[in-house]
Design brief:
The complex is a heterodimer of chains A (327) and B (379).
Chain A lengths: L2 H32 L4 H34 L13 H8 L1 H33 L4 H9 L6 H11 L12 H8 L13 H26 L4 H9 L4 H12 L1 H16 L3 H6 L9 H10 L5 H31 L1
Helix pairs in contact in A: 1-2, 2-14, 3-14, 4-5, 4-8, 4-11, 5-8, 8-11, 11-14, 13-14
Chain B lengths: L5 H28 L3 H6 L9 E8 L7 E3 L2 E7 L8 E6 L8 E2 L3 E3 L5 E4 L4 E6 L10 E8 L6 H9 L2 H32 L5 H12 L4 H18 L6 H24 L4 H9 L4 H30 L2 H6 L9 H11 L4 H21 L1 H13 L2
Antiparallel strand pairs in B: 1-9, 2-3, 3-8, 4-5, 4-9, 6-7, 7-8
Helix pairs in contact in B: 1-12, 3-12, 4-7, 4-9, 5-7, 7-9, 9-13, 11-12
The chains are: A mainly alpha (327), B alpha+beta (379).
Chain lengths: 327, 379
Amino acid sequence: MSIFSLAITVLVGVLFFVLFFHLSNFLLDYFRVKASKNFAFENSIRVIIFIAPAFIVLFVFIIYPVFETIRLSFYDKVGENFVGLFNYTWAINDPDFRRSIINNLGWLIVVPTLSTFFGLVIANLADRIWWGSIAKSIIFMPMAISFVGAGVIWKFMYDYRGPGDQQIGLLNAIAVALGFEPQAWLTIPLWNNLFLMAIMIWIQTGLALVIFSAALRSIPNETLDAARIDGASELKIFWSIIIPYLEQTILVIWTIITILVLKVFDIIYAMTNGQWQTEVLANLMYDWMFRGGGDSGRGSVLAFCILIGVIPILAWNLYRHKQEQKV
Amino acid sequence: MKKLTFASVFSQLLLLLFVIAWIVPTFGLFISSLRDKDVLAISGWWTSFTTTEVNEIYRTKGKEDQIKEGDYYFIKSNLFDENQGKEIYRFGITSKNIDEYEVGETALFKDETEITVFENGDYVWKSKEEFKKKKGKRIFVSAKSPPSFTLDNYKEVLLKEGLGQAFLNTFAVALPATLIPLIICSYFAYALTWMKFYGRDLLLATIIASLVVPLQMCLIPVLTIYNDFGALFGVSAKSYPGIWMAHTGFGLASTTFLLWNFLKTLPSEMIEAARVDGATHYDTFIKIVVPLSIPSFASIFILQFLWVWNDLLVGLVFLDKHPSEIILTAKLKELLGSRGENWEILTTGAFVSMTVPLFIFFSLQRYFIRGLVAGSVKG
């Protein structure tokens, strides 16, 4: 399609929603003047105009699909015949599924931990150095890049050439310079998972960093100064004041990255496509969604497993929301 | 000024180490995208800043370029098609001995013709008899190549590989998929904050629960709806409006939540005063709330735009891989499969896909960070 027809499509799409709200409210005002002043009725119509589009979208794209996916996980591949727990027993006995669960657990342990740790360390370092904000910008930058783009960047870093050839991947060039054999990093089972995780850590450290930077500023200077006057070392201050102070923030960052990691798909799909034992749930789910014309039963089971992973976080978020509402 | 203590030097060095580790991968990609594809395939990008030594093969011109001077026939030309600043220091005429001769020396072919190659690639090929072959001879040269960068890869990728079209497609996906949720969620968030209606708290709780629902939970049923819808009305199940609405749906919870978080910080007296003066909720929304919310709109716009721009999964599921619909990330993934060894295409393609996010990042970083922090510290 040409730029022109794309632009027209875009414009029509956006205008549709602008006009919906404008016209419906205009009509409501128009009839209000004519009809009797029934405020309660008018208000409820207005509420419907305000929330209906969003609610319909929420229902069609989130609420209904969640329950439908759970239902489908008990049905066969076309979603017509009830098969009970068949899909679940299949999953438990499937080596790919078990491999995915193990890999996902690995991701869940390594990525949030290291991203949070690096973020915290860098935020602290950058806070006290005059060129700190430039450093923060640079480390934060990968946040803006797509996972696929990051995948290409790192695939280039991990590129492998035979032992005799010149290495064009930086990692192998370093390995060779240090006297090691070059490695095809992404094909070494178990280790390759770490090389994939490194990409996610590279991206998510920036997120942890900016949030920690904001939180660090909220630590009262008097507390820090008092500790310094008492002769506490910077390391001591870090462990005994800063870490306890940031406990909540650490927890929040941890949960955000955990949710992201549970859904991780793009990186693995772009880099290895689940080969060499790098499958994760989201990848396997995508696979089953389209494999052999699509298997909605198995795909749903895999999606449901990802949901189970976020349920504790979901419950915790709701609990915190309730606490906040009380205040 | 602080004193230069061991601790401060150490922390500066440590930070520098982090910065280098974080910037080098992207920097390497960028440099590689500017290098000549033949050089890129055989040498690391870090060698591109220094003069490198390369061994190359060229072919001389054939009989059509010969001229006769005195008793001899000559072919005089330059080995390089265009001046790349290379300096030849040795050359050879057989593959067995590719650096047999010093530059400026004269080499003798088996057919008793003589050739002299000069530093800048000029050569003089001399023969007693007329040159008869259309094809020239192979010349092996060892040359020093100064750092050189080119934009050829970008031309190739944007025009021939179809990334230019994918770039436009991504815009056509991302702009409405950002604006539509912003429009409908701002009304929704207003209603959640300032309107009283039955079930409001339940709705809010649903939004908070939806925030963390993984996308994967929704894909299969939504795709089924689209397929049924497409079959019912005889339209394609994969279309631009389809993906706009899918992105709207998946971004709705976070957009609403961020806006709600912002709106509840507005002074309620102001809204109530407007209501008492007889303004409808619509007037209050358009004339008071929207102007005050512009900065938070900007933050949310950037977050959602980047999310849509960088998304791969939704694009794969709800759009065709046809050139008129494929988005940048899907195209890039396709290239990773089909052109996995063509690093000039991959690095350039990746950089093209990163231009818009990086532009937004560097120009609107403050809004980006504000949105992220607002979305995380509170939620």
